[in-house]
Amino acid sequence: MLKDFTKLLLTAKAAVDVIKEKLESRACDLALQVKNFKDNAGSPKANESKDQPQAKIKEKAKEELFQVLSEISHRAQISEIQVKGFIKDKLTELTNNALLDSMELNDIRAEIASLRAELADLKSQINLQKR
Asked: pLDDT digits over 51-65, tens only?
């Protein structure tokens, strides 16, 4: 479930980024088109551009939508790879730290065992000297 939620979150982030970029790009294009329209308002070519078939407009819209969806999917995959890499690095780091801690604990246990052995040896020597 966490994996699905993460994918959804990354896809949403990618969608927001792509849509933001597309809107900024379209705003610039629209500003240029408005300027061109104002400049060419009196020319006879202006009427010809109004007669552009709707099929071409629909086809262009489909292409744009497909391109946006492809870009969203691509960015979501890139984000997913980056998140997986980050998680893998952190997991490796934690595993290495745990391994080092475990090794240190084993060293401490071994030291305690050797100290106990030395203490037992000293006690036995003291007991022998008392006799």
From this structure: 566 777 778 778 888
Which residues, 6+ apart, have CB-to-CB distance to 18 below 8 Å? 68, 71, 72, 75
- CB distance 11 to 76 below 8 Å: yes
Q: How many domains does the chain have?
A: 1
The runs of H, that is alpha helices, within the chain are: 2-39, 45-50, 54-130
Q: Is the pTM of this model over 0.70?
A: no
| Dihedral in degrees, nearest 10, Cα atoms 112, 117, 121, 126 | 40
Burial category of 14 from C-beta neighbours within 10 Å (exposed 0-12, middle 13-18, buried 19 and up): buried
Neighbours of 83 (CB within 10 A): 14
User: Domain range for residue 112?
Assistant: 2-130
